[in-house]
UniProtKB/TrEMBL annotation:
Residue ranges of coiled coil: none
Subcellular location: Plastid, Chloroplast
Pathway, per record: Porphyrin-containing compound metabolism; protoporphyrin-IX biosynthesis; coproporphyrinogen-III from 5-aminolevulinate: step 2/4; Porphyrin-containing compound metabolism; chlorophyll biosynthesis
EC number assigned by the record: 2.5.1.61
Stated name of the protein: Porphobilinogen deaminase, chloroplastic
Segments traversing the membrane: none
Amino acid sequence: METAMPTVNQAHFRITGRPLSSNFIAASVSALGISSPSTSNSPSSSRGRSFVARASVAVEEKTETKAALIRIGTRGSPLALAQAYETREKLIESHPELAEEGAIRIVIIKTTGDKILSQPLADIGGKGLFTKEIDEALINGDIDIAVHSMKDVPTYLPEQTILPCNLPREDVRDAFICLSASSLAQLPEGSIVGTASLRRKSQLLNRYPSLKVLENFRGNVQTRLRKLHEGVVQATLLALAGLKRLNMTENVTSVLSIDDMLPAVAQGAIGIACRSDDEKMAIYLASLNHEETRLAVACERAFLEKLEGSCRTPIAGYARRDEDGNCIFKALVASPDGTQVLETSRRGPYAFDDMIKMGVDAGEELLLRAGPGFFNR
């Protein structure tokens, strides 16, 4: 089932900073305010629509007058910066001493995944494509905390680092965005859907084998919306969480249900890491942690770790608390061409040890059912 999204206002950000090296920019982040779109389009009326990609980033020279109390490391995309800004605001809310100008500095770090845009993620290989350089900056003391999209974080953490904090999770569902159709089911046979995600590709082709997928459909949200508007593809799928954090849900045509498109492990969750020996930062982060999110993400990542999943493996998993307070965990693995999808689920107490066991057990079941060579089809 697909749900139409309401329109919302667009937040803008300004980044001011000074270059540190080829990979770093030290910056302070400030909100420029919230403005309303000049026109409002109903997402359910998609025909003839043009999309708006207004989140912008400007970099300008600024001289730092004093050492920051906390340096936040992040990627430089508008979405990554929105997540860093959210972290900054929550720190200030919990610790008023951090409200002083310059107390928190944003340090923008370019990762391998940001530098190589011409190849599909599965072809680049390796893990930590969007985290490695940020983790190195953390270990080297160039930053104090690192803000990550949890779906980008490998199941292992580098030595000397811990990830003790997850912010409250955003909507985990995927959004369907199209200029000419209101749902995937309404796309004509042979329509091209752009996505760099093998998880989305496999589930899409499993349900709609008459559609085609452009795999190397990469770039930030704004870039992908521009490519859609230019006619490179007829539709695309994006994480609703990112569009909400960018205040860009006016671009959403409809929202895919969990049953139609199971999300990526840890989709919609922000994780914040620090050095394992930095007690001060650990205390700051403990005040921000959302335990329900942390436990759900731990369950999903235990499942992913058991499967040893990577960008080459279509894997999905989602843990949530039900109305009785228990954990419901749904998971799947799929062949890349979508011809076969294996699903499973678990229910148990919403407690760390039980949820880790559920994730591991689900992974073991699907490994056994898939057999060798399943992901090579």
